[in-house]
Amino acid sequence: MKAIIIGDRKRYEIFMPSKGLPEGFMDEIEKVYFPLGTKDEEIIGSGEGAEFLLSDAIAPVSGYLIDHLPDLKLIHSEGVAYNGIDIEAASKRGITVCNNRGINATAVAEQTIMLMLGLLRSIKEGDEAVRGGHQIDMKHRKMREGILELADCQVGLIGFGDIARATAKMLIPFGCSVVYCARSRKEEGLEREYQASYMEMDELLATSDIVSLHVPVNDGTRGMADKGFFCKMKPSAYLINTSRGEIVDNEALLEALREHEIAGAGLDTVAPEPVPADHILINAPKEAAEKILFSPHIGGITTSTFRRGHMNMWKAVWDVSEGRKPKNVIV
Prior knowledge:
Largest sheet: 7 strands, parallel
CATH topology of the largest domain: Rossmann fold
Shape: elongated
């Protein structure tokens, strides 16, 4: 058996399962590693005969690559995202495509709440004030301006999948009001469990103090957070994106921050990735830049997440090699 692995070799070696699979199974697999950015032709040349392809969640897996690996049976994303994989090409070939749905829900929910609190408590500005010798000045100013607690906020979750639900559950002890919108309303028992109420999108945007994105990237969500979206939000509200950068229209967000249409944004994901040094949000003018809190897309990359995810991938390889249907099949 042969597996193509696109991503960081050291990471794959660190999280290679040592138990939970048949003894000697991992040794039977020839593993061919390629770093992110490797050309399709190079992968095809060295990956001849590969039955399995495991890819970093942001790695492109093109139709051309798929069509030139005739023995391929399984493509598995290392993460939850799979928008880099040409699903149509894989489906035409009858190749199973899987992702790691749900493995990072707790981790990303923690990052989401961290960004919420970071914005409410002006964490970036506060750090700079203390380092610059202006602690008391900022402290007095914040007492005059006021600081919201999460309990004072309505948090609106757009999407109500695994991560949104984990976020809702973590918000319960904070005592805030949680609302959500999704393609369809969830059953009453589920809403009760997560103490979240359904709300149509426009009402959610108009009434929420914090709007948090939890949808996958597809033709219906790409650029969802656009000019019209921000115009519907409260001027005092914050946007949180721990989902995918492509969901946000960067120019529209910058304009919303500059024109005081929203109060700030906490972004763990920014498109494109890697984020270039000349990105418009990175180089935003001061009045907008001070309202943005970035984190480097680390919400879902905890040690526990990778242990679960790599176990899932190699278990899928085992299942497919034995003729069984793996978990988390996309097509």
